[in-house]
Design goal:
With 149 residues, this protein is α+β, with helices and mostly antiparallel strands. It is built from three helices and six strands; from the N terminus they run βββαββααβ. Strands 1-2-3 form a three-stranded antiparallel sheet, with no helix packed on it. It has a three-stranded mixed sheet with strand order 4-5-6, with helices on one face.
Length: 149
């Protein structure tokens, strides 16, 4: 890993009444639009879904790093994340804000005897995740363990 601080740059291009093009060096362009809840088309990534995607992506990568660092062997990880956007009072004004995040992690192990270590590593991944650490609202984690057949 490179030393801190790390800097990340993304450019947004928007023409009136069009989608937003998100561009970053050496990466494919992502097309973004408002979600259905904000009268958008609902068939493109939105700022809201990009945030939840970043959260669950970071959690999964953090788990992989934690497991590798502990030499922990596992079969598969499937995660789903939910973000709750609501109106909250900020200085006497109602503003839209994420009020909670939920990660549902389904980890498949090679053997059932690894359950305790698996749960510790899933919790560690939540603590390591830079996206979770950067969010104002609380992130809750639900862990489900299974054994590969």
């Amino acid at each position: 890993m490179k030393g801190y601080p790390h800097h990340y740059y993304v450019r947004a291009e928007l023409i009136e009444d069009s989608d937003v093009n998100l561009e970053c060096s050496n990466l494919d362009t992502i097309v973004s639009a408002p979600p259905l809840e904000f009268d958008g088309p609902g068939d493109r990534w939105s700022p809201e879904t990009l945030l939840i995607g970043a959260l669950v992506d970071c959690f999964a990568l953090s788990f992989r790093a934690a497991a590798k660092g502990s030499r922990f062997s596992w079969a598969a990880l499937s995660c789903e994340a939910e973000g709750v956007l609501d109106k909250v009072d900020v200085e006497g004004k109602g503003v839209a804000q994420f009020t909670g995040f939920f990660i549902n992690a389904n980890l498949t192990l090679f053997k059932a005897t690894d359950n305790e270590m698996a749960l510790k590593l899933l919790e560690k991944a939540k603590r390591m995740c830079v996206i979770t650490n950067s969010l104002k609202a609380t992130t809750r984690l639900k862990c489900n363990l299974g054994v590969a057949i």
